[in-house]
UniProtKB/TrEMBL annotation, chain A:
Superkingdom assignment: Bacteria
Pfam family, one: NMT1_2
Protein name per Swiss-Prot or TrEMBL: Nitrate transporter component, nrtA
Keywords: Cell inner membrane, Cell membrane, Membrane, Transport
PANTHER family, A to Z: ALIPHATIC SULFONATES-BINDING PROTEIN-RELATED, BLL4572 PROTEIN
Any Gene Ontology CC annotation: endomembrane system
CDD domains linked to this entry: PBP2_NrtA_CpmA_like
Gene3D superfamilies tied to this protein: Periplasmic binding protein-like II (3.40.190.10)
Chief place where the protein resides: membrane
Cell compartment(s), UniProt: Endomembrane system
From TrEMBL, chain B:
Record-linked InterPro entries: ANTAR, CheY-like_superfamily, Sig_transdc_resp-reg_antiterm, Sig_transdc_resp-reg_receiver, WH-like_DNA-bd_sf
Residue(s) carrying 4-aspartylphosphate: 57
A Pfam family the protein falls into: ANTAR
One term of GO molecular function: RNA binding
Phosphoprotein recorded as keyword: yes
UniProt source species: Nitratireductor indicus C115
Name of the protein in its database record: Response regulator receiver and ANTAR domain-containing protein
């Protein structure tokens, strides 16, 4: 194709930038006539600011970021949409070796059983309190992040008050291992490869993973400036098709070695390929042996890049739960409409790939892989359970928010 | 009555650039300027200094931490917002282009803060220009060394005068539409490969 549209997308050095990196490096964007430039950034604040001033048209973003921007929680006026997710899962909760030893003494063992791990952590916290020691400190990457919300959801579900029993700080992903080495934090919830980096440095133990706290759960999205999307609908549709193809490529196990190589380059993650490979295959070195986590990071299968509005509403429910925004029907609607399955469907419809017919689903309802209604072909979703067996039905948002208010808030 | 002096905190891991900004602010009559280079000291320094204005470089990975701190009333006693007022798009663009961001304590009047940000922006831009010029000068020096070495090779192997050697390099560069330093580097590499270096 001779005509080429230029798009610049910002990203942070994280495993789930994979789909964007593959779209550029494997030529999927070019096949759609798009010259895709990827710009690595050092903070989510920079991503936001550079989108706001037009340096970037779009970016790899924490899924709650567009919601927070549209709700006016960001320092500058910015309307964003999420017409695509960039995969499911990919995070872990990692603790210092000292904390893990204490947790093991309280019965912590299998990292795929967050309930038991959390009970052990609660035991450690109670002991520390009796001895008059300082609260444990956990790092997350951003207040409006899946990491913050899944860490808090897990803690609260295990009887630990995230506001009083621990201290939660913001630590940039590449600095998590350093912060732990310096004793500034006892644990963190972050995306790969930064858990594996801390484990490889001999500092840490992976306690549990996002996929065990909430299986098949949303993490990053493609965040696009709303006015740019309105004016460049056709270009955006072509890019979404390119990203769809890139996601399918990333999802093939046979391509993981090459994908790990691509991501390891200095311009992207700048980490050894061997350290990235495990997360792509769902096999992590926990610090106490290699563990296989089903659906650890899902870039393609199970409609992994479909921007479910039920995901948007779950994030919103947690923003309300932790006091970031007051609940109102209007705010909920703004959150829901931040995710745009309509744009996704219109862009991918010509490809004849299976598209979910619904824009929302009951989260946590599927105990086993289940075929669902689609436009064409076949689509299997789930399992998608929360570790505590809870169900989030977006139709009963008010009741869900009310039920969480009684626990700790 | 003159208003109380503003307390300004400059967060920049680049110590030279931070000093340049500090000097600019002092020249403009701001006496209370604090510099922080160590990213880990940010939280403590903010609570100690209680700044009215915070200037931070965009390369700093701790902006997310800093912004979160401003949202937590227990960490900072006074509410702080991003300076870039929602209505002032030009100021936002100029700041981001220059690679700097600023935060101010709530309620501070725009006209008191604007000159500070303008100062930071112009000093950031001046610093980038200085770095570019330094880089250019370094490249210039490097290519002059390469050309001298290539001239030496030609003088020895072809028995040319220095001027003739230079003219030969220049003509070849023009014919091939390349830089003289590139031709000189090729010659040095070739000569080394042939064992004549």
């Amino acid at each position: 194709m001779s005509v080429s549209d230029s798009i610049t997308a910002g990203f942070l050095p994280l495993l789930d930038s994979a789909i964007l990196v593959a779209a550029r490096e494997r030529g999927f964007a070019e096949e759609e006539g798009i010259a895709l430039t990827l710009a690595r950034e050092t903070s989510w604040a920079n991503i936001r600011d550079r989108i706001a001033v037009g340096h970037f048209e779009m970016a790899h973003m924490l899924a709650p970021m567009p919601i927070a921007a549209n709700l006016g929680l960001t320092p500058m006026r910015l309307d964003l949409i999420a017409p695509m997710s960039l995969g499911l899962g990919g995070n872990a909760v990692t603790v210092s070796r000292n904390l893990w030893a204490a947790m093991a003494g309280e019965g912590a063992a299998r990292p795929d059983d967050p309930g038991v791990i959390g009970a052990a952590l609660r035991g450690v916290i109670q002991t520390r309190r009796r001895k008059g020691e300082d609260p444990l400190r956990f790092g997350v990457v951003h207040p409006h992040s899946g990491h913050n919300f899944e860490l808090r959801y897990w803690l609260a579900g295990c009887g630990i008050d995230p506001e009083r029993d621990v201290e939660i700080l913001i630590v940039p992903p590449p600095l998590t291992a350093d912060a732990m080495a310096a004793g500034r934090i006892d644990g963190f919830c972050v995306g790969e490869p930064w858990n594996s980096v801390a484990v490889a440095a001999g500092l840490a133990h992976i306690a549990t993973v996002k996929a065990a706290i909430w299986r098949s759960s949303p993490e990053k999205v493609l965040g696009v400036r709303a006015d740019w999307a309105r004016e460049h609908g056709a270009v955006l549709a072509r890019l979404l098709r390119a990203l769809h193809r890139a996601s399918v490529w990333c999802g093939e196990a046979d391509n993981h070695e090459e994908l790990a190589d691509l991501l390891s380059a200095p311009a992207y993650l700048n980490q050894p390929a061997a350290l990235l490979r495990g997360a792509l295959d769902g096999e992590l070195e926990t610090g106490g042996g290699t563990w296989r986590f089903p659906d650890f990071f899902v870039p393609a299968q199970k409609a992994a890049i479909f921007p479910w509005q039920s995901h948007a509403l779950w994030f919103y429910s947690q923003m309300v739960r932790w006091g970031q925004v007051p609940h109102s029907a209007e705010n909920a609607e703004t959150a829901r409409r931040s995710f745009r399955p309509d744009i996704y469907r219109a862009a991918l419809e010509p490809l004849g790939v299976p598209l979910p017919a619904a824009s929302m689903k009951v989260e946590g309802a599927l105990a086993v892989p289940t075929p669902v209604g689609v436009s064409a072909g076949q689509l299997v979703l789930g399992p998608d359970g929360f570790f505590d067996g809870a169900i989030f039905d977006p139709v009963h948002l008010d009741a869900y928010i009310a039920s969480q208010r009684s626990a700790f808030r | 009555m003159t208003p109380k002096q503003l307390s300004i905190l400059v967060i920049d891991e680049n110590t030279i650039r931070a000093s340049i900004i500090e000097a600019g602010l002092r020249e403009a009559g701001h006496g209370q300027v604090t510099l922080v280079h160590d990213v880990h000291a940010i939280a403590r320094r903010v609570s100690e200094v209680q700044p009215d204005v915070i200037v931070i470089d965009l390369e700093n990975p701790n902006r997310d931490m800093l912004e979160n701190m401003f949202n937590l009333s227990r960490a900072v006693k006074r509410p702080i917002a991003m300076f870039v007022d929602r209505s002032d798009q030009a100021a936002i663009e100029a700041a981001v282009d220059a690679g700097v961001s600023a935060y101010v304590v709530d309620g501070l009047r725009q006209e008191r803060v604007k000159p500070i940000l303008d100062m930071a922006i112009s000093r950031f831009n001046a610093f980038s220009r200085m770095e570019r010029e330094l880089e250019d000068a370094r490249n210039e020096l490097e290519s002059r060394k390469v050309i001298d070495k290539a001239k030496g090779i030609l003088m020895r192997s072809k028995g040319l005068s220095e001027d003739e050697a230079y003219q030969l390099l220049r003509r070849t560069a023009m014919n091939q539409n390349r830089k003289i330093s590139e031709i000189a580097q090729s010659l040095i590499t070739a000569s080394e490969l042939l064992g004549g270096g």
